[in-house]
Amino acid sequence: MSTVRKIALNTAFLIAGKITGILLQIYIVAIIARYLGTAGYGKYAFAFAFLSFFQVLSSLGFNSILVREISRDKSRASSLIGHGIVIRFFLSIFSFSLAIAIISLLKIPQDTTSAISILSLILLFSAFQTPEIIFQVYLELKYSVLINLGNKLLTLGLVLFAVSKGKNLNFFICIAVATNLILVLGVLIFSRKFVRLKFSFNSSTLKWIIKESWPMALSAIFITVYFKIDTIMLSLMKGDDAVGYYNAAYAIMSNLIFIPGAYATSIFPIISSYFKSSPDSLAKIFKRSFKYLFTLALPIVLGGAILAKEIILLIYGEEYLPSVQAFQILIFAVGIIFISQLVSSNITAIDKQKINMWLTLANVCLNISLNFLLIPLWSFIGASIATVATEGTGCLLAFLYTIKYLKIPVFSKSHLQSIRLLISAGLLVGVLYLMSSVHVIPRILIGGMSYVAGLFLFRWFDQTDMKMFKQVIKLK
Predict the structure, then answer these.
(1) Which has the closest alpha carbon to 200: 342, 69, 84, 62?
(2) Which of 130, 207, 119, 232 has the alpha carbon at shortest distance from 170?
(3) pTM, to two decimals
(4) What are the residue boundaries of the structural domains of the chain, listed by start?
(5) Burial class (CB within 10 angstroms; exposed 0-12, middle 13-18, buried 19+) of 164
(6) Quick one: which of 174, 201, 62 has its CA closest to 114?
(7) What confidence tens digit (pLDDT) does each residue in 203-222 have?
(8) N or C: which end of the chain has fewer CB within 10 A?
């Protein structure tokens, strides 16, 4: 199977699985949010935001380095993954202990403290999810997708049971812990198809992994702070209701960015190997990838901004109407993340992970500063603006560095072809407005079809694109 086709099929399978998983996740979140109410859901979201700071301490960005190195030499898979588990096991114990110590010192409501203490149990077995990277290395992401889908279905069943029995916040937290443990067991079972783990303890290998990973570790910490500090600051400055409104919109946004994540996950092993074997191919892959991701991002941003009210009402109900404006702002962050995921993966693949580290540090500083400035003025709307401004700044800097490294011109005559894409986007907007009296789901489907039709009608895709599409879908 060709590399192009394997990347595309993995991305397509991952996207299809992710779409199903995201629909399930949104349904799960909607049930929990409606059942707990804005204040209760705010506590639920705060618990997960708090945990995320310690989850990143338990992994410290090792996975990207392990994927990169195993992609270049698969014979090292067993040893590297085994060492990764050993390191992460000790980090997990440290993270759990630190989380419990910090939560005991914070002056927050008892029910929130209890929820966080229970949720922190996830840290104790997180190290054993490390073998999941082998699915990415071998471009066999279907296993990861199927494991996660099964886990989502189990979660949905347990959540529906909890609602029917009138359970409290802590029961929903226990569901998260139990299903996470089952997810880890699934990864351990299915990963044995590709790799047999060796839990060795070679000091030189451990030192090498740590040396290579520390920039990624700091980047992961900075990214987590950047993505979650707004929820923590909102909780402390404006209360649980503001957190509930913000995270209702944010949950949709965070689920929508699965597309660039799926693509980056599929392509990362390839560009990592090309950096050593075929550096000239990197620029070509980047330009095509940018084109495809931007083409996918544009209708999501435009459609989300136009249909924000209908989407919030459909998922959460009238209690969450204040979330509409936050969603209209945050949807622009989704479009930006489509590009930032791509450039971040390329920077790591070319062994320049320190660049990502400094960029994410700059993002953290900017985001915290903007949150301090805007949350007191506009609450969760201010946090939304801060997120978009920070995403835009970080993405622009990373993008400029990437095209400079790959020697891609900022402007060229080929960019004039983008008018074809804009016309197709205009067609989408027109259809959405003309169908304003129609239910949101048919509007999304018909609007999406009109956009795709416009792309082909106005020949946005060139001959190279069409050849690649044919190569992807051919059966032999």
Answers:
(1) 84
(2) 119
(3) 0.78
(4) 3-410, 419-476
(5) exposed
(6) 174
(7) 776 777 777 666 667 777 77
(8) C
